[in-house]
């Protein structure tokens, strides 16, 4: 539609041709971004899954991220949502609102990183929009995944007595954000910052949990909050053994010096691990899936009858930890 | 993902529950917006079509639009893209970046209008995101349509000798924008402003043109520019008879006083009519479709061999009109 701000730099058509079209090559339904819409035909027997996130400079990224970091995170947080549904990447759309002052070089680097990321995760660009804004860089990425029809994992479906599992390690996202803000250096800071900026969507694990887990989602709001979502939608409560929550070496070392921060790690967001519920009979299957997909998993608790969505964390002695925050509440 | 700006007003979860969830009711795959992703299963034998647009306050809407106007236009411009593909509305996703200072009342009115619009056009909300921004209101709407598999209309496919048709009237979008800016009053201004703010996506016409038209798209960049897109993708040139271009009474009256503005009307965007190419043998079919769908159409020219994408407009005497702008170039 009409943008009275008028043309600048390459103009929309030029930018599409130079930066966007190459990202669509290899996906027939994108038709080289030459139509106003793309055709999405999922493979036979599959359902299409769609998820979308908007990230805003100064709000969702701290500001000194390069365009490559922004591109990678925009894609990965959406792929993590797909992983939580047991879906595999199919394609994505990209809406950019960019300040007039932003150089084309920013967009070029952004798209170069997208090219690398989409090759890594096996999907292509199918469409989008690019507009100018008097505000900050605003990136909306919409990811499409495919999952065998009727087999997607959901938040509901957990049963009382199910084990609660989580992949990877918890709390690195928060510590990574803090490391970014503190301009921290050194190998542990670098590890944490990478975890914050380049979360690993647990796609292989998610896909293999289809038919194994009863309920799942990704940890974006915080382990406690996301487990609460799963429990609530399943009509159950949940209990976790805090010492079972897997921590990275960097996080464990941080905690050794600041034990009071444990609750923060459990309730912060941006981990992008999977939390899922499965019957105890599936334990051997899950261990096998973890091995096959080279994704560490830890059994941290169970679902049980109780107030839907209530989550308590027990310490080594079995006492309830005072965790009064149930995770980040989005604005 | 973490939004360090923190909670405000209802918070994301509260806003989803109160304003967004009701918009998803009736579409099973949305699952009440309770998962991180939605399941899209188009009807058997149909392809899914996706299109998306971002609109920014101060750039794409002038600023004194109410939230209802913004909601309606965000949806309709996307539905117009679906119409241009011959697709019917299926569902949509909505990403909002809203200033902290914006009251919930704005969102409430925005969603109330979406409720009315989605009922009118027959689709539901399936997902989205809501974040805060230090910038202006930024709305990304992603619309999904369905079209019989392999039958979507595209920009390419036109053949030399095909008639060029356009629906409705051309130029009202520009005059409506000007009327908004001039705070114009009176019945003609009201008509033009409504055309600008509430364009009518030509969905019934588009659907019935499947198998009848060879190529089509919607007029968002301007009649000349969009016809140029169609011609270029078809490897052809195009010629239109300027006096055949359909004008509303309001536009005709404006032109009577300002004949020099004719080129502006042909090259401005925001008309959201369909321009399409069809063989002369289809003329009777097209007239019948126009009657059935109560959508006026006009035959305005033809495709012909020539430099791909070259479009010329001839006046009453057959002389080429000097139109040096080929339409709005997006930023």
What is the secondary structure topology, with strand pairs?
The structure is a homodimer of 331-residue chains.
Chain A: H1 11-24, E1 38-40, E2 46-56, H2 67-84, E3 88-99, H3 104-121, E4 124-133, E5 138-148, E6 163-167, H4 172-181, H5 187-197, H6 203-209, E7 215-218, H7 223-233, E8 237-241, H8 249-257, H9 262-267, E9 274-278, H10 283-292, E10 297-304, E11 311-314
Parallel strand pairs in A: 3-4, 8-11
Antiparallel strand pairs in A: 2-5, 3-5, 6-9, 6-10, 7-9, 8-10
Helix pairs in contact in A: 1-3, 2-3, 2-6, 4-5
What does this structure look like?
Two copies of one chain form a homodimer. By secondary structure, chain A is α+β, with helices and mostly antiparallel strands. The first copy, chain A, folds into two domains: 11-148, PurM-like, N-terminal domain (60s Ribosomal Protein L30, Chain: A, 2-Layer Sandwich); 163-314, PurM-like C-terminal domain (Phosphoribosyl-aminoimidazole Synthetase, Chain A, domain 2, Alpha-Beta Complex). Chain A has ten helices and eleven strands. A six-stranded mixed sheet of chain A has the order 7-9-6-10-8-11. In chain A, helix 1 packs parallel to helix 3 and helix 4 packs across helix 5. The radius of gyration of chain A is 21 Å and the shape is globular. The model of chain A is unreliable at 1-8 and 327-331 (pLDDT under 50). At the A-B interface, helix 1, strand 1, strand 2, helix 2 and strand 3 of A face helix 1, strand 1, strand 2, helix 2 and strand 3 of B.
């Amino acid at each position: 539609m009409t943008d009275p701000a008028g043309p600048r730099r390459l103009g929309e058509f030029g930018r599409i041709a130079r930066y966007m079209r190459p990202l669509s090559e290899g996906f027939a339904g994108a038709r080289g971004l030459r139509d106003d819409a793309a055709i999405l035909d999922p493979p036979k027997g599959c359902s299409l899954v769609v998820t979308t996130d908007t990230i805003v400079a100064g709000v969702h990224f701290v500001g000194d991220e390069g365009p490559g970091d922004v591109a990678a995170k925009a894609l990965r947080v959406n792929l993590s949502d797909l992983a939580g549904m047991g879906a595999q990447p199919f394609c994505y759309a990209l809406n950019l609102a960019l300040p007039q002052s932003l150089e084309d070089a920013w967009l070029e680097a952004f798209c170069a990183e997208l090219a690398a990321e989409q090759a890594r995760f096996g999907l292509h660009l199918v469409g989008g929009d690019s507009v100018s804004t008097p505000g900050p860089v605003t990136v909306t990425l919409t990811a499409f995944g495919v999952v065998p029809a009727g087999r997607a994992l959901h938040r509901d479906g957990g049963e009382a007595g199910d084990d609660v599992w989580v992949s990877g390690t918890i709390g690195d996202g928060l510590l990574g954000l803090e490391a970014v803000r503190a301009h921290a250096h050194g190998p542990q800071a670098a590890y944490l910052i990478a975890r914050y900026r380049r979360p690993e969507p647990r796609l292989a694990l998610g896909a293999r949990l289809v038919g194994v887990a009863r309920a799942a989602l990704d940890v974006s709001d915080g382990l406690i909050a996301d487990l609460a979502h799963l429990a609530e939608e399943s009509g159950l409560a949940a209990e976790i053994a805090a010492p079972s929550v897997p921590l990275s070496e960097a996080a464990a070392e941080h905690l050794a010096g600041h034990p009071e921060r444990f609750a923060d790690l459990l309730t912060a967001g941006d981990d992008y691990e999977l939390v899922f519920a499965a019957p105890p009979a599936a334990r051997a299957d899950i261990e096998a899936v973890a091995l096959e997909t080279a994704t560490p998993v830890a059994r941290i608790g169970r679902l049980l009858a109780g107030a839907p969505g209530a989550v308590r964390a027990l310490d080594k002695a079995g006492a309830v930890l005072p965790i009064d925050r149930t995770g980040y509440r989005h604005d």
